[in-house]
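Worked example 3 (structure in, sequence out).
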């Protein structure tokens, strides 16, 4: 069933909610939001461990280990089903047998958090978390008391959600599927007053067949935007260009081109800050300072400033807010410095994100030697779809360390990514590159070869065996 003809009516008067697979970042945040609304919240999950278990415990949310129909014996008024949950999950089966009301995570978010507010949504293959975090912070710094739910931890809030009393709800619009009963992307559940489209590329090889498939869901998203809403679209992406005719709302472009409504002007690097100009419709809108690094982050910032301005905030207020933004955990986050060696943690995994991140860090740190460490571990990066593309993503790095993908057995043998082949290709391009079977071997190598002034950039969308903390300790 497509999402358009599959709406669960969430009944009124809900007091008790149970979340199946509550320990995901988004589900955990939703549980906490529902709790703050005064509902009684329970949850269950297979792997209950920190940090999410502690996060929920601190908020008095009772989480049960494993999936068991007994968890539903108290007959909650609503059950929220996480998108990792399959239809044969014992609790899902019990929901049907008991005739309980159920819905997906975005449906619950829309009903409880977005109700009566203007939704501001950020969509795109890359930059969603940074752009939505920044927008939420700018609105908060301007005292508009926003509500938000985002896929990364904002350092300013030490959290990824907030329940506010103000008129805005900021959300990261994910193209990933919604639930076992709703294979449509999550972003189709929202009716944004303003939206951002940052980029459109092939990703999530576990649910999308190819680029055309990805473009079709972004196309549906654009068609569903209300005519009175506004879309800010990045102006240097051929796939966005091809899709824009499908949008019936007002569209403004942001980027570098002279024609863009929101244009990046002069940029000055003054570590640890970057100063830059923003031009709007050919006139200087303002001068801004940020501690985020890389041109891709200036683009994310441009989009967030544009939306915030449409919500009535002026350049001065925005400049103050931006200067006070402390970034997002795992987005070019400096985890520590030992013996003059900087260790950075980044979530990059898609080739475009890896390329941009390596380039940004190298540009920012200038003459210093850059060591890039990469662990392919997503459903896409462990497949061979980008096998050849990855070899072109590390050019600015001085040395490259590639780990064996940790969960290769999940991928059919004919489709597996080869880290050894990537290292060969990198050497073919004149890079100093090494292959490592495990994380311990990488740490040993880095301790033996690193010297004062090095910048070690570690990229993975997972915990990477706590390599950052362990490396810092070993370097000390």
């Amino acid at each position: 069933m497509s999402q358009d003809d599959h709406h669960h009516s969430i009944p009124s008067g809900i007091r008790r909610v149970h979340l199946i697979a509550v320990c995901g970042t988004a589900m955990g945040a939703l549980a906490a939001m529902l709790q703050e609304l005064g509902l009684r919240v329970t949850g269950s999950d297979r792997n209950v461990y920190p940090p999410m278990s502690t996060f929920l415990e601190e908020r008095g949310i009772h989480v049960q280990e494993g999936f068991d129909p007994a968890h539903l014996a108290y007959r909650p008024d609503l059950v929220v089903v996480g998108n990792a949950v399959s239809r044969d999950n014992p609790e899902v089966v019990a929901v049907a047998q008991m005739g309980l009301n159920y819905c997906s995570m975005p449906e619950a978010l829309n009903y409880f958090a977005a109700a009566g507010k203007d939704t501001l949504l950020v969509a795109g293959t890359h930059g969603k978390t940074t752009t939505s975090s920044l927008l939420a912070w700018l609105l908060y710094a301007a005292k508009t008391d926003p509500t938000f739910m985002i896929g990364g931890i904002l350092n300013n809030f030490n959290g990824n959600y907030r329940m506010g009393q103000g008129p805005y709800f900021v959300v990261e619009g994910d193209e990933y599927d919604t639930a076992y009963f709703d294979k449509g992307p999550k972003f189709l559940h929202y009716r944004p007053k303003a939206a951002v489209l940052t980029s459109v590329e092939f990703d999530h090889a576990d649910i999308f067949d190819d680029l055309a498939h990805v473009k079709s869901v972004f196309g549906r998203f654009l068609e569903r935007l209300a005519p009175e809403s506004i879309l800010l679209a990045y102006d240097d992406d051929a796939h966005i260009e091809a899709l824009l005719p499908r949008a019936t709302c007002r569209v403004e472009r942001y980027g570098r081109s002279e024609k863009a409504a929101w244009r990046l002007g002069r940029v000055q690097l003054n570590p640890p800050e970057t100063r830059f100009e923003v031009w709007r419709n050919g006139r200087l809108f303002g001068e801004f300072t940020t501690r985020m690094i890389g041109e891709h982050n200036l683009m994310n910032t441009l989009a967030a400033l544009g939306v915030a301005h449409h919500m009535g905030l002026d350049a001065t207020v925005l400049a103050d807010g931006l200067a006070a933004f402390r970034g997002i955990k795992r987005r070019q986050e400096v985890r520590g410095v030992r013996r003059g060696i900087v260790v950075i943690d980044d979530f990059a995994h898609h080739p475009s994100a890896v390329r941009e991140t390596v380039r940004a860090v190298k540009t920012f740190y200038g003459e210093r030697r850059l060591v890039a460490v990469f662990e392919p571990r997503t459903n896409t990066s462990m497949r061979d779809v980008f096998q050849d593309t990855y070899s072109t993503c590390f050019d600015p790095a001085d040395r490259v360390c590639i780990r064996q993908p940790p969960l290769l057995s999940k991928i059919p043998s004919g489709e597996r990514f080869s880290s050894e082949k990537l290292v060969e290709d990198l050497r073919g391009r004149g890079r100093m590159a090494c292959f490592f079977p495990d994380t311990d071997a990488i740490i040993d190598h880095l301790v033996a070869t690193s010297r004062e002034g090095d910048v070690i950039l570690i990229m993975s969308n997972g915990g990477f065996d706590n390599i950052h903390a362990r490396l810092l300790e070993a370097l000390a």
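Notes: Confidence is low (pLDDT under 50) at residues 1-7. The longest strand covers residues 262-270.
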